[in-house]
Structure of Protein kinase domain-containing protein:
Amino acid sequence: MVKIFIQASYMGQQVDNELNMYKYMEQSPATHPGRDVIRTLLDTFYIDGPQDKHRCLVHPPLWESVLAFLRRNPIERLPSPVIAVVLHHLFLALDYLHTECHIAHTDIKADNIMFGIKDDSVFTDFEEYELQTVISVPWTFSADIWNVGCMIWDIYEGGSLFTGQDPEFQRYRSRAHLAEMINLLGPPPPSLVIQGELSDKFFSSDFLNQDLLTGLVPLEQRETTLEGTAEREAFLRFMRKMLQWEPGKRSSAKELAEDEWIHRHM
């Protein structure tokens, strides 16, 4: 599998970032089980283009991404046994990145997780590793945990928790994204808000765009697909371990890899 980068200034920085991540991982312990579910770099070389050279990265061959698999599914949501295996591998990979490599991925999404030729899922792409949050709160490894929680809802419940679509401007706006988060989780704790460099843009003592708030609609009211009380409650407990305002209250990747809901379906 060969990944070819176009010769543009921002892509040059992107390939440098990705190469640095792979080189850093090569120096980290290889005995962690999460190392086996992260795509490796086999080689790198240049090819000549019409105007300049292009950097190429060589990786082991893989099948399709979770996103592509999802789009082939008529109901556009992953079945429980499939997502359980995917998430177990993903959390092992994140535990390896967080604890052994001290790397936050920050770009977790369904098209960065690919199925291997032998059915194992593999975590890919290290192009970006700087987090941009809505109110610019300093990031931690738990930013990856939040992103996984949002992705799970997309691929398992068949819809996005947050779109950021602003009804006034008819496009994405940070204020609309933040309002959706408040509608789901309630207002953020003041101790978190004061850390944000952009907090004054959205908060005084309360959220400044009250017209965007529709009232609290928690996960329990949004979940409509699962059958059985025990199954539904286990899934919602699992989701709440990730979707917490305060980074310190989110479970670690290692803890989530051992969650009862995942192991119930593996």
